[in-house]
Amino acid sequence: xxxxxxxxxxxxxxxxxxxxxxxxxxxxxxxxxxxxxxxxxxxxxxxxxxxxxxxxxxxxxxxxxxxxxxxxxxxxxxxxxxxxxxxxxxxxxxxxxxxxxxxxxxxxxxxxxxxxxxxxxxxxxxxxxxxxxxxxxxxxxxxxxxxxxxxxxxxxxxxxxxxxxxxxxxxxxxxxxxxxxxxxxxxxxxxxxxxxxxxxxxxxxxxxxxxxxxxxxxxxxxxxxxxxxxxxxxxxxxxxxxxxxxxxxxxxxxxxxxxxxxxxxxxxxxxxxxxxxxxxxxxxxxxxxxxxx
Length: 293
Known about the structure:
alpha+beta, D-Maltodextrin-Binding Protein, domain 2, 2 domains, seven-stranded mixed beta sheet, 7 helices, disordered N terminus
């Protein structure tokens, strides 16, 4: 576990400064979450469907993060999963607990995600894992790290030997379509993993623990920090344009990498992969019906 230095309030908006703020607040929020009572049945409600849960801890963590950002970056708008906000003017995009179902069940794969954005593009971000104590972060043009150690994506070039992460939506009818997509893709790759936290799946791509990741239906707060971490580690990344933000291509990759996916993956896809298999994985997803998910 890394203990970050203290950040004092000031107005600098360079990626290194914003990254330091994100790291500090994410680490503090993880400590805050570790001090909360375990979720109880009375502290759990649902949102978009009976399987889309939210706990009292989600609200508590987001309230904590908003207060800390207000102290360190006064006046900067926050767009968060539980407290909402204006996506078009957001400086900070926050997911207080990504992987809430894992958290509810006592599974350790959940995280707090904080991203700093400019005109809808992530310029810095940090993801803290309260259970494992890991802290992932990146700044635009400055690489990505886990607990201070530089990250690099896998060097694999064989799609058939690639481990691919995915996830599923909360509504039953869309889950069925996602299951069909995975069933079509599964025979063509080494295996598929569904861990239950999009932010950490993107970190897994950055670390080389996954060769690729594909999921439909993620919200901006799910991927805002994680896609920058993956991209700065060398991944080819394709995401949906954030709500209320116009003019973004949604496609980016490291310098010198092969071209990223060029559409046909679905309007709300999140995609990240090692450059050596990114094109083939995207083509496989398209052939398997990604656009219809």
